[in-house]
Design a protein that fits this description.
single chain, alpha/beta, 4-stranded mixed sheet, 8 strands, 38% helix
Length: 303
């Protein structure tokens, strides 16, 4: 909705833009319209807030799947408060950064020094692995870390947010390579392919669940949950008996972890699979929705 409004209410316009929308008298439609009004969707641009507001779409989906019937707009009170808090936080941060010290060319080295040195490598790893998992066509090209990525007919997803099926990109994950050849895209934050992949990982079913296996000193089966904690993350692990395993949570959250290959069908095809997962999930923190879940197995190290 906000994007369609933006097609009309653009920078440089000389005439007033009147936004007309329908407010259903009852049901889910009424509650959603009220939510959008309170967030300010029809009055102000939402640019830069997409990631902060993803939980709004998930909340609407949960209410919609609960079934038909009258919906009290108050059902979105909590998610509205979170959205307003996120909007205020982002706006204050942007205002602070934009106005505390006007940009000067000599500031460039210090600004670039704040970018993690391995950011491009991590972006390449995440995007290419996810694209392969989604069934996209990936071909290496001449040039530093240069690839063609296409959402072809074999793709397992119909589209990414902002990237329709059939899209084809030639680009590089190397900043210097992209600067040297403007005919190639720079696959980084802000590029539609990168943003689409990250959005699918965050909101789609393939990005929020996983199976993990590695070797260790004991044989353990359990469930790992990842929670957002402000700007950071927290890993929580429980074993098959529902007992907290902070030691395993720390192990799985460690940078550089290399899990083993898992044949998903051998795990999920077991008769008690669903019951076991639900039992372990009941032992996770109550009232908190994890950002991602993974069933895991620690396989005893031979010898």
């Amino acid at each position: 909705v906000e994007q369609r409004i933006g097609r009309l209410d653009r920078i440089g316009r000389t005439l007033p833009t009147e936004i007309v929308y329908f407010r259903p008298p009852r049901g889910l439609g009424r509650a959603v319209a009220r939510l959008y009004e309170e967030i300010g969707l029809f009055r102000e641009p939402m640019g830069g807030l997409e990631r902060e507001l993803r939980h709004v779409a998930r909340a609407i989906s949960r209410v919609a799947l609960a079934g038909p019937g009258e919906v009290d707009p108050a059902v979105f009170a909590d998610v509205l408060a979170e959205a307003q808090e996120a909007r205020t936080r982002v706006q204050q941060a942007a205002y602070h950064e934009l106005h505390r010290d006007p940009y000067r060319p000599e500031m460039a080295p210090a600004i670039l020094a704040r970018v993690p040195g391995d950011l491009e490598v991590l972006t390449e790893s995440v995007v290419l692995r996810a694209a392969s998992r989604f069934g996209f066509e990936i071909e290496p090209q001449n040039g530093q870390r240069t690839w063609i990525v296409e959402l072809g007919s074999e793709s397992l997803v119909d589209h990414l947010p902002g990237v329709p099926l059939g899209s084809r990109f030639l680009g590089t994950f190397d900043r210097e390579e992209a600067v040297g050849d403007e005919g190639r895209d720079f696959f980084a934050s802000g590029h539609p392919l990168v943003e689409g992949v990250l959005a699918e990982l965050a909101d789609g079913p393939r990005g929020r669940v996983a199976l993990l296996q590695l070797t260790g000193d004991e044989e353990v089966f359990g469930l790992l949950a990842i929670y957002r904690r402000g700007p950071g993350w927290e890993a929580v692990a429980v074993d098959a008996q529902g007992r907290p395993r902070p030691d395993l949570a720390a192990q799985f959250a460690a940078i550089g972890l290399t899990p083993e290959f898992v044949d998903a069908r051998k795990w999920t095809g077991q008769g008690a699979w669903r019951k076991t997962i639900h039992r372990m999930a009941a032992a996770l923190p109550e009232g908190q929705e994890p950002e991602a879940l993974a069933a895991f197995r620690v396989r005893r190290r031979p010898g």
